[in-house]
Design a protein that fits this description.
By secondary structure, the protein is of the alpha+beta class. The protein is built from 13 helices and 15 strands. It holds the Pfam family Transferase.
């Protein structure tokens, strides 16, 4: 994000005109804990760069009127999701301290046409980057709304993975959108059930020592954390593209997988197909090792289970390793192998979600460069239902695709569709695109 008065990449011109600090609206019913002690699920992400999301609304109202509604409803939403308005405590303990400063809400103007980037045929990463804010060290959420000269708005936000996983952050955005759509009405039937922040609900006797172990390995200088920027040379050299699998494409893919193995889920079928297609695009040797990384939600798998309103992190990083030759066998055998390998990993998480807990950080070390697939987000998140009062978004993207083989799975705009965005070297993207829709 640019500072007020500056211009920034991707679009013809973008200028930040105002930055407001938005604080939660505190009432007599607002829960006000002094500190939230983070769990090992949270500190697993310590030192990671901010997550960035972007929603494009081609039919939104002018910036000034939209900003007023967004700010007032954001204040109400933050009162239900208080941790997001806090900041990391300046102590050796991994804690969120509540702050009176609120969060940064930036307003910007763009001279470009939103239609140029609202179409899935174009993935302009530099343009997208200019539409999401930077996140200051220690802060947990920042928002930017950008109005376009020809009409339409972009709503971008950055958040710290320490504070929330994908399921939690989208539950916050959904509540914010409902409050805004209702004209700033703060009723349970509008905003939904209250979020639960209490990490003591995660029952694990060794949890505190595991947290300290994670921090020592992942961020030895904590609470000092590096300032991240996604505009690195390596990230800028990658190509990104978004594909949409229709419900018909997905049905065909699942039928292919089911003909050679047991019934598979939409997630397993799609991820297996992406993994195989990526290996083909990279032209890996048959003996080359490859690794698939994805997150499994543990809320319902823990004992006792966490309720659906738990706000924070509760995902396990899962890995599936294979030799490339096993995945590109003919006759559908590669697809069968990939599906069964994913299903086995998911089964193990269901049986023991905290298995090998002390070794969870191993996944972040020694990853094979150019031979991994890192899957983020989930098509279960109803991201195209985020209506702030001016209709559904025309496009939703995860902007923080900064690694070779980084993938985002989102719900598609049309019913039953799934949106797939991927980052690859340019020389591999054309091959991937030519193979991906052959389902």
């Amino acid at each position: 994000m640019a500072s007020p008065g500056e211009t920034s990449g991707g679009l013809d011109r973008i200028r930040v005109t105002n930055v407001t600090r938005v604080c939660p609206e505190i009432t007599s019913t607002t829960p006000q804990p002094n500190l939230i002690k983070l769990s090992f699920f949270d500190v697993l992400w310590v030192g990671m760069p901010p997550m960035t999301r972007l929603l494009l609304y081609p039919s939104a109202p002018p910036l000034r009127s939209a900003s007023h509604s967004l700010i007032s409803s954001l204040s109400l939403a933050l009162s239900r999701f208080l941790p997001l308005s806090g900041r990391l405590a300046a102590s050796d303990e991994a804690e969120i301290a509540f702050s009176a400063d609120g969060i940064a809400f930036s307003e910007a103007e763009a001279e470009g046409d939103i239609g140029r980037i609202a179409n899935h045929d174009v993935y302009d990463w530099e343009a997208f980057r200019s539409l999401v804010p930077d996140l200051e060290a220690g802060e947990l959420l920042a928002v930017q709304v950008t109005g376009f000269a020809g009409g339409g708005l972009a709503l971008g936000f950055a958040f710290s993975h320490l504070a929330a996983d994908g399921r939690s952050i989208w539950s916050f955005v959904e509540s914010w959108a409902k409050i805004c759509r209702a004209g700033g009405v703060m009723k349970p039937e509008v905003a939904g059930a209250a979020a639960v922040f209490d990490r003591s609900l995660i029952v694990c006797p060794s949890g505190d020592s595991i947290s300290r172990q994670f921090i020592k390995r992942l961020a030895p200088s904590y609470p000092l954390l590096p300032r991240h920027t996604s505009s690195t040379e390596a990230a800028a050299d990658l190509s990104r593209k978004t594909f949409v699998l229709t419900s018909g494409n997905i049905k065909s893919l699942k039928e292919r997988a089911a003909s050679i193995t047991t019934k598979v889920s939409t997630f397993v079928a799609i991820v297996s197909h992406i993994w195989i297609t990526t290996i083909q695009a990279k032209k890996l040797n048959h003996e080359d090792s490859t690794i698939l990384i994805f997150n499994a939600d543990c809320r319902d798998r823990l004992q006792p289970p966490l309720g659906p309103n738990f706000f924070g992190n509760c995902v396990k990083v899962c890995t599936v390793k294979a030799v490339s030759g096993e995945l590109i066998k003919g006759g559908g055998h590669g697809l069968s192998f990939a599906c069964m390998a994913l299903q086995e990993e998911i089964r193990k998480v269901g049986e023991n979600p905290l298995e090998d807990l002390e070794r969870w950080t191993d996944v972040f070390f020694g990853l094979p460069e150019g031979r991994m697939l890192l899957v983020a987000e989930s098509p279960r998140f109803r991201v195209y239902d985020m209506d702030f009062g001016w209709g559904r978004p025309g496009r939703v993207e995860m902007v923080s695709l900064t690694l070779d083989g980084h993938v985002a799975l989102l719900e598609g705009k049309e019913e039953g569709a799934v949106q797939v965005s991927i980052a690859l070297p340019p020389s591999q993207m054309d091959v991937f695109a030519s193979l991906f829709h052959l389902v």
